Amino acid sequence: MTVLPPMVTADRVGLVACDHCGALSPRHPGRMTCPRCGGVLHRRKPDSLNRTWALLVAAIILYLPANLLPVMVTTSLFHKTHDTIISGVVYFWNTGSVGLAVLIFSFSILIPILKMGALGFLVVSVRHGSARTRRQRMVLFRIVEFVGRWSMLDVFVVALMAGLVRFHSLAMVEAGPGAAAFGAVVVLTMLASFSFDSRLIWDNDERCDER
Amino acid sequence: MTEELGACPECDALYRRRRLKRGETARCPRCGARLYGRSRIGPDQMLGLVTGALLTFIIANAYPIVVMQVQGVSNSATLSGSIVTLWTEGRRLMAVLVFATTQLFPLLDLLAMTALLSVAVRMRQGGATRPVWFAPLLRFLQSMRPWGMTEVFMLGVLVALVKLSNMAHILPGVALWAFGALTILLAAILTFDLRSLWDENGS
């Protein structure tokens, strides 16, 4: 592949790349559509940083009920247990399934927290980050995008258990309100990472180079 | 002139496109993003994989994933049955979430792939032109793809099985194997670069 002189971007030479099909078109004011695929063209994702922030804040708020409310309610002959995400991890740990405890802890607790932290850092660093870390930030963003979906794991586990364990007088498993909140956190963080335009990391860098 | 130029979707750097050999991938020299690739398998073979995945999808959804026995009483769970249970118990948001990520989006993905690949195969054989729905459908498929979560669900099933095996007698159902096969098929299907469909003698 031949690279044109370093730092030449489509934007600099007045071109806009289509987010859908990749075709380049000349930039002009007003609404632009891609001549090849008909998709709407944007120089950068519209209102990227604000949208990412808004979705991220919503996710952080919902993260509280997701962890405090029970994700699963188990009723057996004599007692009723309310399980939160953390007590689910503890259950696996105590029953000897250490591997599963670690897996669920990573997917349901560690990854969501790191993901929200990373997205927040990425948004802030678009304006205040150092040019030298741009490649590392890019790697961070890719990890965030890749890993986000796996946090749905717990939601699926609860859904399946609720569908299966239905022995009315003996044992019943029902999904708790925390599970829906947790699912919403995953969806919101995924939306937040999709609305973040990684090209902004590099745009800022170009401006630094010019000075 | 702009035909042979491309911009990195992740950092906007300009590059000149080059024809790749099968299995090769072009990466952005500035940010390392995957720019475009040429799949090891062509659209016709991919169409075969997608058809296989559709059949597997039907089996995975028609049969119980797991059968559970407690004191002589047995109960089986299909994916659809579990979703209906969530809905009727008032966990509507969760029901919608599970339905969308494990049934609706994976199915739409496979159906859209079937339609788009059929067109690509026919165009390659010459003759056919691109139908009007091609571009909107491909755009839709691209934006919908991240929301299909079959592989995550598969892992969820395994975790649920371990959890339940402590409580009762568990028999894996037909759909469990079907979901396993579907996960593998989908992983192969996802290696197909959707953007390459735009280039199929598009201009």
The number of helical segments of chain A is 7
Number of domains of chain A: 2
Order of helices and strands of chain B: EEEEHEEHHHHEHH
Question: What summary fits the major beta sheet of chain A?
Answer: 4 strands, antiparallel
At CATH level 3, the topology of the largest domain in chain A is: Butyryl-CoA Dehydrogenase, subunit A, domain 3
Q: How far apart lie the N and C ends of chain B?
A: 13 Å
Instruction: Give the overall silhouette of chain B.
Output: elongated
Mean pLDDT of chain A: 88
Shape of chain A: elongated
Assign the structural class of chain A, choosing from mainly alpha, mainly beta, alpha/beta, alpha+beta, or little secondary structure: alpha+beta
Estimate percent helicity of chain A: 55-70%
| DSSP E strands of chain B, number | 7
- Residue runs with pLDDT of under 50 for 5 or more positions of chain A: 1-5
CATH-derived architecture of the largest domain in chain A: Up-down Bundle
Side by side, the strands of the main sheet of chain A go 7-6-9-8
- Average pLDDT confidence of chain B is 89
What descriptors fit this protein?
heterodimer, A: alpha+beta, Butyryl-CoA Dehydrogenase, subunit A, domain 3, four-stranded antiparallel beta sheet, two-stranded antiparallel sheet, 7 helices, about 55% helix, about 15% strand, B: about 200 residues, alpha+beta, 2 domains, three-stranded antiparallel beta sheet, PqiA-PqiB_transport (chain A), cell inner membrane (chain A)
3D structure, described in words:
The complex is a heterodimer of chains A (211) and B (203). Chain A has 211 residues and is an alpha+beta fold. Helix content of chain A is 56%, strand content 13%. Chain A folds into 2 domains: 1-43, no CATH class; 47-210, Up-down Bundle (Butyryl-CoA Dehydrogenase, subunit A, domain 3). In chain A, strands 7-6-9-8 form a 4-stranded antiparallel beta sheet. In chain A, strand 4 (32-33) and strand 5 (40-41) form a beta hairpin. Mean pLDDT of chain A is 88; it is low at 1-5. Chain B has 7 helices and 7 strands; from the N terminus they run ββββαββααααβαα. Chain B has a 3-stranded antiparallel beta sheet with strand order 6-5-7. A two-stranded antiparallel sheet of chain B has the order 1-2. A two-stranded antiparallel ribbon of chain B has the order 3-4. Chain B has 2 domains: 1-38, no CATH class; 42-199. Chain B has 203 residues and is α+β, with helices and mostly antiparallel strands. Chain B has helices at 43-62, 79-88, 92-124, 134-144, 150-165, 174-189, 195-199; strands at residues 5-7, 14-16, 25-27, 34-37, 66-70, 73-77, 169-172. The model of chain B has no long low-confidence stretch (mean pLDDT 89). Classes of the chains: A alpha+beta (211), B alpha+beta (203). The interface between A and B is large, with 69 and 71 residues. Chain B: Keywords: Membrane, Transmembrane, Transmembrane helix. Chain B: InterPro entries: PqiA-like. Chain B: The chain crosses the membrane at residues 46-66, 93-121, 170-192.
